[in-house]
Design brief:
Length: 261
DNA sequence: ATGGTTGGACCCCAA
């Protein structure tokens, strides 16, 4: 089973990119964030025409919004609510739960006292951590993926030193992120295959003339798995070339292959 | 230190 997570930054602006992503990566399950559309206006037909007959959409106008498109039937699970914002969707395929998350970006000022958006971000990560701790077991087969908006490792950003006070890589966020990761002993699918010593990004700002040349990337998109899925994980990759598509999202897709038991 | 760009709604906000 191939599972992809991708922050599309508006699905209605991303048809051409999405078509190419679907045709090249051929995911069985496609988890999207920042669809920026209400449920009624979601492009269900576009995905059906590409073989995704099963969908779960939790949209919102203008901001946020998450969706899961699947070629395989699934069961819709409980969603976490947070200030009426559409940031979580979860499904179950066989005995594997998939949780699609869009963590708040958190604004610019890395101080929860001065910046309510940053306070919300910390609170959101905390509440998700608690939710997993109370509702799930470390022995469950769980995939947590999405735009988690935190680059936890030194080599998840282009300059650890220069980003210590930049929202997405501040010590307080990384601590919250690690607490979430440790809640059920999740491991990082991409770092399972690529050493922590190696630079690895999934996002490059639009505000660069040449994203590839400046290469000031960050790894904000993640796939975390509980230990019981370790033996099933066969492959993980980040598709950097998608950043060069026409009208690209600022995030690129991240994929894992799970060999089912 | 600042500004750079994109998307979606509305005459600016969030990323």
């Amino acid at each position: 089973m191939k599972i992809v997570t991708w922050n599309v930054n508006s699905i209605r602006s991303r048809f051409e990119s999405a078509k190419k992503v679907i045709e090249s990566l051929k995911p069985d399950v496609l988890c999207l964030q920042e669809i920026k559309v209400i449920d009624d206006l979601f492009p269900y037909d576009f995905f059906k025409s590409h073989g995704y007959n099963y969908n779960a959409v939790r949209g919102q106008t203008s901001y946020n919004g998450v969706a899961i498109l699947s070629k395989i039937p699934f069961l819709l699970q409980e969603n976490i609510s947070f200030k009426k914002e559409a940031r979580h969707l979860s499904i179950k395929i066989k005995d594997v739960e998939i949780h699609n998350l869009y963590v708040p970006a958190g604004g610019d000022i890395p101080d929860p006292e001065l910046n309510p958006k940053f306070a919300d971000k910390l609170e959101f990560i905390d509440s998700v951590k608690k939710w997993f701790k109370y509702n799930k077991k470390a022995t469950d087969k769980i995939v947590v993926l999405g735009d988690l908006n935190v680059a936890p490792l030194e080599n998840d950003v282009w300059s650890h030193k220069q980003l210590l006070k930049v929202v997405s890589h501040t010590p307080i966020e990384v601590e919250k992120y690690n607490n979430l990761q440790n809640s059920l002993g999740f491991f990082d699918a991409n770092r399972h295959f690529i050493s922590k010593e190696e630079k690895l990004y999934s996002w490059w700002s639009y505000r660069n003339r040449d994203w590839r040349k400046s290469n000031r990337g960050r790894r904000l998109d993640h796939i975390l798995l509980t230990e019981s899925l370790k033996k099933h994980l066969k492959f993980a990759n980040i598709y950097k070339d998608v950043r060069d598509y026409e009208r690209p999202s600022d995030h690129v897709p991240v994929l894992i292959k799970l060999e089912c038991a």
